[in-house]
Design brief:
Elements: H1 2-13, E1 19-20, E2 25-26, H2 30-64, H3 78-87, H4 95-102, H5 106-112, H6 116-133
Antiparallel strand pairs: 1-2
Length: 135
């Protein structure tokens, strides 16, 4: 909002008017400038109320002490992640098939298993060594 106010002020210094067609707001008139600044002040006020409410909600969550302090709930717990970690080194299984088997998205696996690519590479390497030893 501050950028918009600065931009309109810059335009005004250069004797250029700002007219919003959607809100029918014209800053070339004193009334239009008043309404523009009232809208800007209200927008800033609402934003600050949202920030305060968010901080109060997070503080209340921390006070309840149930472990969550905000953010989106996790979609997967430790057990499916352990199963995924066990399945990932198997080169015959794709990441997509493992995700489908566990009922999560591929992105969820990548987000919750930071070393996923290393596990896949280690599995492929082990399979190549095993295959080379059987020849």
């Amino acid at each position: 909002m501050k950028d918009l106010i600065a931009m309109v002020a810059d335009l005004q210094r250069r004797l250029i008017g700002f007219t919003s067609l959607l809100e029918r707001l014209d800053t070339t008139t004193p009334g239009g400038r008043l309404i523009f600044h009232v809208f800007a002040a209200l927008a800033e006020f609402v934003r600050e109320l949202i920030v305060i409410g968010t901080h109060e909600g997070l503080a209340a969550a921390r006070a309840r002490g149930r472990g969550r302090t905000g953010g989106r709930p996790t979609v997967v717990d430790a057990e499916p992640l352990k199963a995924a970690r066990d399945l990932l080194p198997a080169p015959e299984r794709s990441v997509t098939s493992i995700a489908r088997l566990l009922g999560v998205s591929v992105g969820t696996l990548y987000n919750h298993i930071p070393d996923l690519q290393e596990l896949r590479a280690a599995g492929a390497e082990a399979a190549a060594l095993t295959q080379g030893a059987t020849r």
